[in-house]
Amino acid sequence: MLGRQLALEFAGREFDFFASDLEVDICSRQCLQDFVRGKKIRWMVNCAAYTAVDRAEDEPERALAVNGAGVENLSRLAAQLGARLIHFSSDYVFAGGGKEPYRENAQPRPLSRYGWSKWQGEIKLAAALDTFFLFRISWLYGVYGPNFVHTMLKIFREKETARVVNDQFGSPTYAAALAENIAGLIGADSDCYGVYHYCDSGAISWFDFAQRIMDLALEFGMIPKKIPLEAVPTSVFPTAAIRPSYSVLDSGKAVRELGFQVRGWQLNLKRFFREKTLLEDTL
Fold this sequence. Notes:
Elements: H1 2-12, H2 29-36, E1 43-46, H3 60-81, E2 84-90, H4 113-128, E3 132-137, E4 140-141, H5 148-158, E5 162-165, E6 169-170, E7 173-174, H6 175-187, E8 194-197, E9 204-205, H7 206-219, E10 229-232, H8 252-258, H9 265-282
Parallel strand pairs: 1-2, 2-3, 3-8, 4-7, 5-10
Antiparallel strand pairs: 6-9
Helix pairs in contact: 1-6, 3-4, 5-7, 7-9
């Protein structure tokens, strides 16, 4: 989802870059060495991650291998190459017990194995490398890959009713907007290293998000009709992993220090539908 969006953004700006997919396993140092051999690399952007939140409860070793050891491998490689590394972490490193947006100095306290693995990646990154950019993001969605918006669109087309939790609050992150900001950071050759938070502005529940998705899906002709949408507590959908009830991130530092553009979640969601429509028209 994010890697493909970044590749399109880099290509549009005529960056000279190398992209990879499953053929490059970040858990293998040898695989990484083979990939970079003969290439002059000044920046590295890691979009690889284990993101199956509930499955991580049953296979924590795999989650930790990708989100922890894999990040350490990339960090050591960046140090070897003298490259600047951009890495993405998650709002799930926080417990979500408060009511104020999380700033970068907040103490991580993950509630799940997935959140723990992402936090361990942060620790390994900072231990291995000085010149890095770490972005914690939340509720990522985009025109490519599986995500909440695509799941909701499928439900709205196939079901007569839907239930969505209304007691988990966060902020969506539109992949295309994030990719633009990351490309701008690289284009400016920034050296304002550190930990940053980034997401669209506005705190909402999953139910709020789903409601607006349905409204716009109807407006753009992506669903035949509205269906009843019921707000329910998290307890109605028991999951293996505990989610933070409030994980809104404060993007202020990225705006002030990196010049990032942060738009409201409703604006970016409407942009998603415009871009999704154009993408489907070309298929």
